[in-house]
Automatic annotation (TrEMBL):
GO function term, MF aspect, one: acyltransferase activity, transferring groups other than amino-acyl groups
Domain of life: Bacteria
Lineage start: Bacteria, Bacillati, Actinomycetota, Actinomycetes, Micrococcales
Name of the featured protein: N-acetyltransferase domain-containing protein
InterPro entries in alphabetical order: Acyl_CoA_acyltransferase (IPR016181), GNAT_dom (IPR000182)
Residue ranges annotated for the N-acetyltransferase domain, each copy included: 154-264
Natural source organism: Ornithinimicrobium cerasi
Length: 264
């Protein structure tokens, strides 16, 4: 079994996202989604490509890892080989070999939920389980209850780069809590615009929720993986001046509705 590991080119990113979409199945276990690549792509397409590791068998990708910093690799394995111990041992060998160029640093974390055989091989080799997190899922095959969105009084708009200031300032308040000075604003707007115009932009739907005064109070971006496949809500945030009003639930429902309309 000849498995090779490579770092893709920028031109290969859309093809990899298409392949990754095919690996998204119900029940979704929380592994890497095309939307994870999309959100990460705010670093720009060149750095995005450098942050990916792809394992290929007979010319086809069978596993993908995305570096989230130098010591964290978020991985997913193709469903057809997820229980293949030969494949798992090959992946683990690269993860354990500093010269393979997969991970750097003195400490390493591999996030590989759903990769059963790989997890077993890594544990047998001395890796230990870290703190788990549980993805929350919502069934979109039936009628979606939007009552909490309707009762929130929010106006939801799907936006593009022209609304970068509203989207980024709301997100910044939700997650940073520090002053959004001119330098921070310029950098974040640039990164968000790169994401919204980059190689995964066709999968992104960014929403801004406005209150009755026309103030942006919550934001989210949702990502599609294709007809009948799980979508991803990443990220979602509420401006810190508007916490406790149910806006987080409302904008999340709006995101879920958008995914449902896209066939998720």
């Amino acid at each position: 079994m000849d498995i090779t590991q490579l770092t893709p080119s920028v031109d290969q990113l859309p093809t990899l996202a298409n392949r990754l979409s095919l690996w998204q199945e119900d029940p979704w276990v929380g592994h890497v989604h095309p939307g994870d690549l999309g959100w990460h792509s705010s670093v720009g397409p060149e750095q995005m490509a450098r942050d990916l590791r792809v394992w290929v068998l007979d010319g086809e990708p069978i596993a993908l890892g995305m570096l989230d910093g130098s010591e964290v690799l978020r991985m997913t394995v193709a469903p057809e080989v997820v229980n293949d111990r030969v494949v798992a041992r090959r992946l683990a060998a690269d993860l354990n070999d500093a010269e393979a160029g997969v991970l750097a640093g003195d400490h390493a974390i591999v996030e590989a939920r759903g990769a059963a055989a790989l997890g077993e091989v890594l544990r047998a080799g001395g890796w230990v389980d870290d703190e788990p997190w549980t993805p929350m899922t919502l069934d979109l095959t039936g009628r979606l209850d939007i009552s909490r969105l309707r009762n929130s009084g929010l106006r939801i708009e799907e936006v593009g780069p022209e609304a970068a200031d509203a989207w980024t300032s709301t997100h910044w308040s939700a997650f940073k809590g520090t002053p959004f000075d001119d330098d921070s604003r310029a950098r974040f707007v640039q990164r968000w615009t790169q994401m919204m115009t980059g190689p995964f932009a066709d999968r992104a739907h960014s929403l801004v929720a406005y209150d009755a005064d026309g103030t942006p109070v919550a934001v989210t971006t949702v990502w599609t993986a294709g007809e009948g496949r799980p979508g991803l809500i990443e990220p979602m945030g509420v401006h810190r001046d508007h916490h406790g009003k149910g806006y987080g639930v409302a904008v999340t429902i709006a995101g879920a509705r958008t995914l449902q309309q896209q066939g998720a």
